Amino acid sequence: MRRLFLALGFCFGWSPMVAAQAPESSQPSLDVYGSVPTVRSAALSDNGQKVALLRNDDDGEYVVVRDFVSRQQSGFRIEGFKPILVDFVGDRYVILRASATETLFNVLGRFEYGFSFVYDTEEQTIEQLLGSVRGVVPGTDASRVIGVLEESGELLVPALTYPASNTAVNTGRAGFGGFGSTVFRVKPDTGRVRVFEGDRQSARLGSGSQPKYPDSVDWIVSASGEIIAREDYNPYDNVYRIYTKAGGSWKRLFSNDPKDPRFIGGVPYNVVGMTLDESAILLTGINEAFDETVLYRLDLEGNVSEPVFEKEGRDVYRVLSDDNRRVFGVEFSGLEAEYDFFDADLDSAFADLKQKMDGFQLAIVDWNANLRRFLLKISGGGETGSYYIFDIDTGRLSSVAKAYEIPTEWVGQTQTVAYRTADGMTIPSIVTWPVGSEEENLPLIVLPHGGPHESDKLGFDWMAQYFASRGYLVFQPNFRGSSGFGHQFEAAGHGEWGQAMQRDIHEGVDALISLGWVDPERICIVGASYGGYAALAGGMTAPDMYQCIVAIAPVTDLPDFLSHILQRTGSRGYSYEYWTTSIGELSADANMLRSTSPARNAETFQAPVLLVHGRDDTVVPLSQSRKMRSALEAADKSVQFLELAGADHWLSTTEMRLETLQAVADFVETHLRPSE
């Protein structure tokens, strides 16, 4: 991996790459990149002797469990739903999280909802988690295990139960946070379900009684069964509260100021776990400088500490914890993950490993109960996101599986690039170099990420690597508004769709051109979701820059999209507030929204456009792409449109990805053919 800083087209501190060597093996087929990974999820047992893999091959997808001691293997084939990830509970049980798209409540239209299965590795049986319980609302993430009771071995699973009337569902007055008003205890070996905490009548009978905790969104429970924390949030009133039941009775520890303008929805914290000794609750929140997300400690008297973990320019991205959410470390965001632990020995072990693996990206996937074995995903240096077990005591890495079966020589080198915009923002970005090519006058694929409050990180990106294998330079800019680089950087993108966020992308392209790396006559912009919007906005705001445009599941008409959110969630909900903060207000910003909507400015386009959109997209309505096609056709512009039957927003199956990648590859090749 190489690093580079650019400022206004000038380069500092870089050296030319050694002339690339042409690979000796044959070029991997499009199917290799377009298929979902050979392994898309993995988990480690508590004793560190077993690994569960969510595997994919030509015959379909499977859950496979391998025992490294007995050398035995078991598992099952997945059919009829979309698998998401696997997780181990103890040494015996594997949780498979999955989803499906259906029409729910007759008011929400098509809806992506989650559920889970429990696989008993000893009996080799499969049961749906809470599948036998009446009164559980589908789509409320009734699939998350929040704890394991030490004495009985029962799993604790929160879920929303039906309220007294459909009005409560439609208005979000009951458990709209998704984790619900009832916590169930599930015996994994027998499937027996009992109520642990919540509305017993509704949970057992599906009677429709009002839930006991209608605003609860999360729970922290000790291994002994003591409720350490309950987190409540009502976005309609912007009321956020944290309670504890430690000691036997409910006690409020924190309540927000609903009118605090600094927070979307008025929520300053997020409960993420508890300390190892179960004496305090751990929260993430914005620091006093109001820039980075940090980790705080909330004691059971209601006192919030100074930051426990914080890092300048980086956010606490996730916490690392055991089955009962006792936290032992944190992961920081950025172009490359960084970790801090409460245990100095773990800090030292991972620092040593990182030094030995310089040039590789190390991501912690899972860990065993005593924290002596870690499951890692390693990318870079030719690795395609391969899984290894890291033994803390010996320092050894043991190979488990590869995410993609691609020869090392066909994995393009990645490089970090930071460039400064005209208004002084520093934009962290990634460049992927084409395999076997010199670094000059290259065709360029601009690949803006979705969200927009997400980010691209170093690691194996299947679409970027596909284009790199075909001779293209790939540029992934983390424009302002991207998450993971501090709150101020993210907030700088609010209200800047099609404006400053778009200029960040264009200025990055100009900087690469100024270095001589890019042929300015061979540039295509390709994006999905918000990235699809950015691709179309590129054609709208910089029509001379791009020779082709690909937009997958894009937002194309901002007023119509905001109206869709308003109709679906109401004006007082978190979702609508989030999107108006990000994009703009329907009334107050009407002129800006129209001027930054590609579908309302089709006449400005010069480059041909490919639109791809799934008919089962539950995030961005299919109508957004249909409207864009109609607008381009009316303006007599070149446009192709691929509607994917049964495809979701995330292209989560091999069939969806292959059809999309083939269409995109053919389109780009037609309009941006690399020189021989």
Walk me through the structure.
The chain is of the alpha+beta class and 676 residues long. Among the domains are: 7-30 and 407-557 and 597-671, Rossmann fold (3-Layer(aba) Sandwich), CATH 3.40.50; 38-128; 343-403. It contains 13 helices and 36 strands.
CATH superfamily of the domain at 7-30 and 407-557 and 597-671: Alpha/Beta hydrolase fold, catalytic domain
Uncertain segments are: 1-19, 164-179, 202-208
CATH topology of the domain at 7-30 and 407-557 and 597-671, what is it called? Rossmann fold
Count up the helices.
Answer: 13
Rounded average pLDDT: 87
Helical percentage? 10-25%
CATH class of the domain at 7-30 and 407-557 and 597-671: Alpha Beta
The span between the termini is 27 Å
Rough shape? globular
Task: Describe the main β-sheet briefly.
Answer: 10 strands, mixed
Architecture blueprint of SSEs:
Elements: E1 2-7, E2 10-12, H1 30-34, E3 39-44, E4 50-57, E5 60-67, E6 73-78, E7 82-89, E8 93-103, E9 110-120, E10 125-128, E11 147-148, E12 155-159, H2 166-171, E13 182-186, E14 193-197, H3 200-205, E15 216-221, E16 227-234, E17 239-244, E18 251-255, E19 269-274, E20 280-286, E21 293-299, E22 316-321, E23 327-332, E24 338-341, H4 344-356, E25 361-367, E26 373-380, E27 383-391, E28 397-401, E29 414-420, E30 426-432, E31 442-446, H5 462-469, E32 473-477, H6 487-491, H7 500-514, E33 518-528, H8 530-541, E34 548-552, H9 558-569, H10 574-582, H11 590-595, E35 609-614, H12 622-634, E36 639-644, H13 654-671
Parallel strand pairs: 1-29, 31-32, 31-33, 33-34, 34-35, 35-36
Antiparallel strand pairs: 1-2, 3-4, 4-5, 5-6, 7-8, 8-9, 9-10, 11-12, 12-13, 13-14, 15-16, 16-17, 17-18, 19-20, 20-21, 22-23, 23-24, 25-26, 26-27, 27-28, 29-30, 30-32
Helix pairs in contact: 9-10
